[in-house]
Write a sequence for this structure.
């Protein structure tokens, strides 16, 4: 009889242990339960850009080609002489088509090619050809260089001036490519 009681106590102890172990496993498994929620945005539409690139006085000489929606411009004819500064006073314009002022920042993004043959390239935003400089000059090749935030009034067109100087030893085969980024605040 004593053995039967000891066996039952051992079995109870084993059952309690297994019950506790399974409880721990259930709690551990419950901790990894995930719930996924979804967000849907539909439709997302396009709208006309409120600030766009436009052609200006030196756009032909600079080889300006503006994308169909005014949010892209390619300048593919700019050049310069060795040891002399070439200035495109209005290579392209930036126009605010909105009825309210907008805040913009033009910034250096990247460049490539024979960059070691460049003395400097600076890009300046002005309120008109030869007019007042807006923000800081962009020093191409300097990471983080930008105009800083500038306010372009409703209906205004600012011009983008490029100043290019090749080193004295530059050859006619030397080329560089420059990418700038225009940030427009707001919708």
């Amino acid at each position: 009889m004593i053995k039967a009681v000891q066996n039952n106590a051992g079995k109870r102890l084993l059952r309690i242990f297994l019950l506790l172990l399974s409880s721990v496993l259930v709690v551990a498994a419950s901790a990894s339960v995930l719930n996924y929620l979804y967000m849907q945005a539909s439709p997302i539409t396009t709208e006309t850009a409120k600030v766009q690139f436009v052609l200006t006085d030196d756009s032909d000489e600079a080889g300006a080609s503006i994308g169909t929606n005014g949010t892209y411009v390619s300048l593919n004819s700019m050049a310069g002489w060795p040891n002399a500064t070439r200035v495109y006073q209005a290579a392209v314009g930036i126009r605010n088509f909105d009825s309210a002022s907008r805040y913009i920042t033009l910034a250096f993004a990247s460049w490539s090619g024979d960059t070691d043959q460049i003395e400097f390239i600076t890009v300046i935003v002005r309120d008109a050809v030869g007019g007042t400089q807006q923000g800081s000059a962009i020093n191409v090749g300097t990471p983080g260089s930008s105009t800083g935030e500038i306010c372009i009034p409703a209906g205004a067109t600012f011009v983008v001036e490029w100043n290019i100087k090749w080193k004295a030893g530059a050859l006619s085969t030397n080329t560089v490519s420059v990418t700038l980024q225009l940030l427009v605040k707001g919708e």
In short: The beta strands are 51-54, 64-66, 73-75, 85-96, 102-113, 118-126, 133-139, 150-152, 157-166, 176-184. The longest strand covers residues 85-96. The chain has two helices and ten strands.
